[in-house]
Amino acid sequence: MDVRLPFLLCSLDAIANMPCNPCIGGSAKGQLVRELDSLGGEMGRAADATFIQSRMLNKGKGPAVHSLRVQSDRVKYHTFMKSVLEHTENLDIKQAEVTEVCAENGKITGITTRLGAFYPAGCVIITTGTYLGGKIHIGELNYQSGPDNVSAALQLTESLRNLGLSMRRFKTGT
Q1: Is there a domain that residue 28 lies in?
Q2: Number of domains in the chain
Q3: MnmG N-terminal domain: from which residue to which, for each copy (predicted)?
Q4: What string of DSSP letters covers 127-141?
């Protein structure tokens, strides 16, 4: 593609962050990694370059369910993926929090950032990870936050709800 694309994220330090489980592979995620690889994705290459250990799962069962899982070094994985993005042609990486997906008559018109910058677009790809409406629970204490003390994307969450998307949280215990 000969189009320059903006790539906005809350923190450059959060690129490819693996906050709680630095594993790639397994029976479900392993299939996804293979599909990404067949489309030219980097996740498998990053896992190969940064793994600490690997394990074949389900060895006691038939070969159809054997599945490789690797544990990656969190910092090396982040550094590898950040370098890949920084060296991708026509990708303009910017640190900015997206607070609103703008639409008119049911069609996307762009996004707005916390600082008020507007990026016009007919199409927007959002990869929020665990930041939408993020909450941390520690015993009886709970507060709004994303992983590793990165801010939760509260305004973006509300913007997506206003566009008619429903939000659902899955509890993780880490």
Answers
A1: yes
A2: 2
A3: 10-174
A4: --TT-TT-EEEETTE
Helix (H) or strand (E) holding 17: none
Average pLDDT over residues 60-80: 93
Compute the distance between CA of residue 55 and CA of residue 66 in angstroms, rounded to an integer: 10
Query: Which pLDDT tens digit goes with each residue over 132-143?
Result: 777 788 889 988
Q: Residue 174: is its pLDDT beyond 90?
A: no
Asked if 18 and 77 count as a contact pair (C-beta separation under 8 A), the reply is yes
| Gap between the Cα atoms of 92 and 83, Å rounded | 13
**What b/e readout covers 154-168, taking b as 16+ CB neighbours within 10 angstroms?**
bebbebbeeeeeeee
Q: Report yes or no: 69 and 24 within 8 Å, Cβ to Cβ.
A: yes
> From the CA atom positions of the chain, what is the Rg in Å?
18
Judge if 82 and 104 occupy the same domain.
no
Give the position of tokens 């790639």: 24
Beta strands at 67-72 and 141-144: parallel, antiparallel or unpaired: unpaired
Q: How far apart are the first and last CA of the chain?
A: 40
Query: With contact defined as beta carbons under 8 Å apart, do 102 and 111 qualify?
Result: yes
